[in-house]
Each structure stands twice: as C-alpha cells, then as structure tokens.
Amino acid sequence: MPIPAAVLQAWAIAVGGMSSLATALIVLILLNRKRGPGAAFAFGLAYFGGYVVIGLTGVFVGASVLELDLSTGPSPTTAGVTLALGLLLSAASVRVWRRPPASLGGEDDDSFLGQVFATLDELPLARALGFGAALPLLNVKNLAIYLPAVALLASAELTPTGRALAVVSSAAIFSGGLLIPLLIRVLFPRRCADWLAAMRRWIEAHATRVAQVILPCIAVALLARGGWSFWQLYA
C-alpha cells in the first residue's frame, strides 16, 4: 500500500525539527556527565513523548477545530493558521540570521539556553524528565514547524491506527536530532564517546548555520501554502 502524499509531506516538514540542535546539545551534555546517562534518556524520551501527545491531540481533536475537510476544499481557518505560522517562522528566521554563527552553548552565551547548559551537570533525573516533557510546549518556534505536519496528518485519509503511527513516526523524525545520540549510546556503549564528542563539537560550531538554512525554507513553504489556499478560496 503506497504511503499517502500527506504523510510524506508531514515527514518532510518534520525534518525541520533538526534545526533545533540546542535540544540535541542538551542530550549530549547529559550523556557526558559523571552521574550517568539516565537524565539524558529521561529528557530525550519525555521530549519525544511530548510531541507524540501534541500530534495525537492535533490529529484526533484539532481536525474539527481547524475544519480540515478535503471534500470541501481549502479551509479559511487552515489557510490563516498556516500563514500565521509562516510569519512566525519568518520572524524567527530573522532573529537567527542576526545571531553570531557559533554562539550556541559558548562561553558568551547568556541566553536562556546558555543558562540551562550551565546547570545540566546538576540536573536530577526527575527534573530532566519534567523539562523534556515541558519543552515542546514552551518552544514556540518548534511548534510553528511541527503543527503544519500535524495538520497534514489530520487531513490524510487514514485509519485511526494509521494516523497514530503517522504521528509517532513524524514525532520521531522531528525529534531525531536528540534521539540519534541516544540510539548511538544504546547500540555502541563502548565506542560512542568519541562519536558523541565529535557530534557535540559540530553542533556547537554549526547549529546557527543549520537554523539559518532550514527555518527560512519552512517559512517560505508555509507562506506559499497559506497564500495558495486563500487564492483558491477567494480568487
């Protein structure tokens, strides 16, 4: 059975979650601390689970709110939300382009995340779990990337089980930046130290550049999709 186009599009949008490399850096720091990797797994799995819950809620409840009904054509509500998310990501893109190229996690990083990085060595497992579960709701930029993928899945012609599986897979792709280090730690516990250290150095050096490329692309795609929907409605 071929994969529906809406699911493939949702997966493509979910790749945008890779631009949030700060969360991957949090996992890498937690994996490297002397207390063991427990807090890293608690944070990562809670973070992934948070996006699964958001996705399931959006697919099974939000569909009626957003009036996602393919048989009636484009919805003004959906088009408006898509345009709003595109504008939000455009503003985030401007902020990212004004950021120094290698500021993430550096010694001069006095942002909220910079303060978080400074406290990770002492983060208890329970707080790591709670932080991971709360972060998907607090990160507006990530929600602006993720919600259009959820809207596409809500509009796809799938069984309830198919929609649930599509949400889980989309959340896994979206959270891939921090799930991959955890998977490496599980599969290669004795050889992973050098790989994870190299990954951390790369993220610290290139995270801003990655966001500067991915965020504008998603913003343009959302603006184009929302604009085209309004054109179909009112042209």
From TrEMBL:
Matching InterPro entries: Gap/Sap (IPR021315)
Signal peptide: none
Transmembrane segments: 6-31, 43-66, 78-97, 165-188, 209-231
Keywords annotated in UniProt: Membrane, Pyruvate, Transmembrane, Transmembrane helix
Name assigned to this protein: Phosphoenolpyruvate synthase
Source organism of the structure: Plesiocystis pacifica SIR-1
Organism phylogeny: Bacteria, Pseudomonadati, Myxococcota, Polyangia, Nannocystales
